[in-house]
Design goal:
The chain has 396 residues and is of the alpha+beta class. Helix content is 40%, strand content 21%. The chain has twelve helices and 13 strands. The protein has a six-stranded mixed beta sheet with strand order 5-4-6-3-1-13. The longest helix is centred in the C-terminal third of the chain and has 25 residues. It is globular. It binds 2-deoxy-2-fluoro-alpha-D-galactopyranose. 2-deoxy-2-fluoro-alpha-D-galactopyranose binds next to helix 6. One of its GO terms (biological process) is galactose metabolic process. Catalyzes the transfer of the gamma-phosphate of ATP to D-galactose to form alpha-D-galactose-1-phosphate (Gal-1-P). InterPro entries: Galactokinase (IPR000705), Galactokinase_bac (IPR022963), Galactokinase_CS (IPR019741), GalKase_N (IPR019539), GHMP_kinase_C_dom (IPR013750), GHMP_kinase_C_sf (IPR036554), GHMP_kinase_N_dom (IPR006204), GHMP_knse_ATP-bd_CS (IPR006203).
Length: 396
């Protein structure tokens, strides 16, 4: 299954039933339990997490479910509805990052991360089903990591409070899969709460649940899957991160988080080239936009966050240079159709756009984006309206 449209009609029960049925069919017994974790969108704060900065994501109502049971030996068998054959591995494959590849690497990575943290990980059989579309920038990988982590922690009776989970799941991705991502996605899918956006300080890992009550404001977040083919996203992500780290080194600060908007002009003057200056300007102004958005939400002024979202998009487009024509088209069309604000969400070079809209205008804004796509000859986008949902949990 490729980056399909998220299925708005799917209920959490469906995906849990698929995981359970897959488990029974594959292993011939009932699972001991089922654990779910959602995808995420980031309301604002892009490429700030690995700069020790601020992010404001929320968990999606689309979930990945892992049905699991312990086994007697120290081996792990994983089946996913994405592929017919299960993958099996033991300590030898787990302890050598990169040995398990493809989607199962996220599972092996979690086992590796837990073992590296000194935890006695129980052998297990697992079956994975998901409504989080793969490859759309909605953190389907973090959802798998979090659901597997939740399952293994409980099956093994591991003494691991949930506030340690995001770092462990991030290490799976950095150290085993080999993607140099920050801590935002794992934090959102583990610590997200229904009706709230998660204000995370990526340096201290302190979180604050910020009320994000779209419903009572008559608002909705429309998510547009740009369906843009990912163009060298991994290499570009790593290049952006390297550029930020080099800039921090030149400026003599631990991370770009330590440069404030008031200090920006002076900092830019010390940087060697226009490209580095643009990267730094994005990160510094984006951190401030997160803080401003949090202030507005605390004051119940949800609609007024719109211009910050749109400014964030312009900064990603012009300064961080991580957007592509499909996402720019979606943002422009959503704004022209009356969205209060719109921006690309996630790492960039494709993925999804979110637009803050009046709930009753969501279908018209979605239509406007679809029309704009057709006019430019792009493949039709996927569209979905979402509300903030809960993070990882055991299902009843
Ligand atoms: C991806 C990464 F996984 C996150 O850590 C974050 O850096 C994001 O891109 C950009 O904000 O989702």
């Amino acid at each position: 299954r490729t980056a399909a449209t998220a299925t708005p009609t799917a209920t959490p029960g469906d995906v849990a039933a698929r995981a359970t049925a897959g488990f029974r069919q594959r292993y011939g017994v009932q699972p001991a339990g089922r654990w779910a974790a959602p995808g995420r969108v980031n309301l604002i704060g892009e490429h700030t997490d690995y700069n020790d900065g601020f992010v404001l994501p929320f968990a999606l109502p689309l979930r990945t479910v892992v049905a699991a049971a312990p086994r007697d030996d120290e081996r792990w068998t994983v089946w996913s509805e994405l592929s017919s054959d299960p993958v099996e591995f033991g300590p030898a494959e787990v302890d050598e990052p990169g040995r398990v590849t493809g989607w199962a690497a996220y599972v092996a990575g979690v086992v590796w991360s837990l073992r590296a943290a000194g935890q006695a990980v129980p052998g297990a059989r697992l079956a994975v089903a998901s409504d989080v579309p793969v490859g759309s920038g909605l953190s389907s990988s973090a959802a798998v990591e979090a659901a597997v982590l939740a399952a293994l922690v409980e099956l093994g009776g591991l003494d691991l409070p949930t506030d340690r989970w995001p770092r462990l799941a991030q290490r799976a991705e950095n150290g085993y899969v080999g993607a140099p991502t920050g801590i935002m996605d794992q934090s959102a899918v583990i610590r997200g709460r229904a009706g709230h956006a998660l204000f995370l300080d990526c340096r201290s890992e302190e979180v604050e649940q910020i009320p994000f009550d779209l419903d009572s404001a008559g608002l909705a977040v429309l998510v547009v899957d740009s369906r843009a083919p990912h163009r060298h996203a991994d290499g570009e992500y790593a290049a952006r991160r390297a550029s930020c780290e080099e800039a921090a080194r030149i400026l003599g600060v631990p991370a770009l988080r330590d440069v404030t908007v008031a200090e920006l002009d002076a900092a830019l003057g010390k940087l060697p080239d226009g490209e580095t200056r643009r990267r730094v300007r994005h990160v510094v102004t984006e951190n401030q936009r997160v803080l401003d958005a949090v202030e507005l939400l605390r004051a119940g002024r949800v609609r007024d966050t719109g211009p910050l979202l749109t400014a964030s998009h312009a900064s990603m487009r012009d300064d961080f240079e991580i957007t592509v024509p499909e996402v720019d088209t979606a943002v422009d069309a959503a704004l022209a159709a009356g969205a209060y604000g719109a921006r690309m969400t996630g790492g960039g070079f494709g993925g999804c756009v979110l637009a803050l809209v009046d709930a009753d205008r969501a279908p018209a804004v979605a239509d406007a984006v679809t029309t704009a796509y057709a006019e430019r000859g792009f493949a039709a986008p996927g569209t979905l309206t979402v509300l903030p949902a809960d993070g990882a949990a055991r299902l009843g």
